[in-house]
Amino acid sequence: EPFKNITVPTSAFDAPDTMKIGILDISHNRFSGTLPDFVGFAERLRHLDMSNNEFAGDVDFSFDGLPFIEYFSIANNKLTGQLHPNSSFFVGSFVNFVDISGNQFTGVLSANVFSNTELEVLRLGGTNYTGSTLDASIGELTKLIELDVSNCGIEGTIPTEVGQMVEL
C-alpha cells in the first residue's frame, strides 16, 4: 500500500492551475481538516466528489465559483454550519447530482434547494435541518429520480407536488 498514511496539505491545492481541474474525486480516503478554499472557486470543475473522508468544520464559502458543476458530493464528512442558499450546487443550471448527506449542517433548508430543474438526485439525509419544511417548489424538480431527506429533522406535511413527480 504505497499511499497509505500519505499527507497532502490543503495548500497543495492553492496553486493557480488547480482552477483548471475538471474532475476531482478524492472520495473514500482519510483526508481531514477544512475543505480547501479552491473548491468553491474552481470554475472549470464539473465533477467534485470529496465524500467519505474526515473533512470537518464550517463551510464558510458559497461555491459561487462553480458555474459548470454537474456532480457535487461532500457526503459523509464532519462538516457543520449553514450552507449558503445560493450555492452553485443548489441553483446551478448544470447540476444533476447533489449529495451533502451524513454531515451536521444546520439552519433552515432554503427553497433554493428545489429551484434547479435539472436536478436528478438530491441527498440530504442525516443532516440537521430541524424545523425546515419541504417547500411546494419541490414539484419543479421534474427530472428528480432520487430524493433522500431521511433523518433530517424536517417537519410539516409532504407537499402534494411530491405525488405528482412522475420520475421519483
Automatic annotation (TrEMBL):
It holds the Pfam family LRR_1. It comes from the Eukaryota. PANTHER family: LEUCINE-RICH REPEAT RECEPTOR-LIKE PROTEIN KINASE PXC1. This is Uncharacterized protein. The lineage of its organism: Eukaryota, Sar, Stramenopiles, Ochrophyta, Bacillariophyta.
